[in-house]
Amino acid sequence: MISSNQKQIEFINEPNLIPLLDFFLILVVMLALMVGPIQSYIKINLPELQKKYSQTNKTNNHIISILKTNQIYLDGKLLTSTQELEQKIHNKGGPIKSYKLAVDSQLPSTNLIKILTILKKII
């Protein structure tokens, strides 16, 4: 009997991803190069902002500041309590009510939640 030492060759059934990745890299580079010329050909007519709207928007922005010592300010004026804040917010009218909160990072979250519930109730 004749015996031979033949090695068995195993084939890997995984797809070769290198050509696919090369193709996508070329597509990305082509897209990056073509964005500039394409943007110059596209004309978009944007509406112009009316001065009247921007002025009324600025007057209706209100800032509520809360310090870590629990001092509450509405548009720079010191308020004594959350009830006074609720009254002031309720009295301020206008078509656009926009409130910005400026809160100290060391303020307890319960105090912030009180202010947010007041705003939610009124607005």
Automatic annotation (TrEMBL):
Keywords: Cell membrane, Membrane, Protein transport, Transmembrane, Transmembrane helix, Transport
Membrane topology: Single-pass membrane protein; Single-pass type II membrane protein
Transmembrane stretches, start-end: 20-42
GO cellular component assignments: plasma membrane
Protein's GO biological process: protein transport
Organism superkingdom: Bacteria
GO terms of molecular function: transmembrane transporter activity
InterPro entries listed in its UniProt record: ExbD
Location(s), subcellular: Cell membrane
The keyword Protein transport belongs to this UniProt entry's keyword annotation: yes
Family: Belongs to the ExbD/TolR family.
Name recorded for this polypeptide: Biopolymer transporter ExbD
